[in-house]
Amino acid sequence: MIFFPSFCVVKLNILALFAMLLLSIGVNGSIRMDNGWTPSHCAAESGRIHILRALHNANIRLDEKDDSGDTPLDIAKMYAHNECVKFLQSVLGEYKGTREASAPSSSTKSSAKGTKKTKANSIETPS
């Protein structure tokens, strides 16, 4: 019976469930330590993919830099946690796709003549 709690933590992902519970009641998943590390940096260091997923599911950014300029992805690479690296790379791809989708297109920028293009290959209308 002494080993049962450890077995539960490993096999049932109690830590991830606990993290999701804490995040659901409003615990700050973006809090920083003195060196700028966030919970995602700590999870990446120890290879806790389930914690990274819980943070991501709670809409916590996983691309924050610490005081040395390292992201959780950099930390996961340093410690060769390949599953975490793959997950973080996919998340960063989602972030990049979101930014590109929300960025204004060049077809809506004003030209030097004070006119505005409403669509690519369309007639310019006065501003």
TrEMBL record:
Protein name (database record): ANKRD66
| UniProt-listed InterPro entries | Ank_Repeat/CDKN_Inhibitor (IPR050776), Ankyrin_rpt (IPR002110), Ankyrin_rpt-contain_sf (IPR036770)
Positions annotated as ANK repeat: 35-67
Low complexity bias (residue ranges)? 101-113
Which keywords belong to this entry? ANK repeat, Repeat, Signal
Residue runs in coiled coils: none
From the UniProt annotation, give the residues forming the signal peptide.
Answer: 1-29
Q: Record the organism.
A: Bugula neritina (Brown bryozoan)
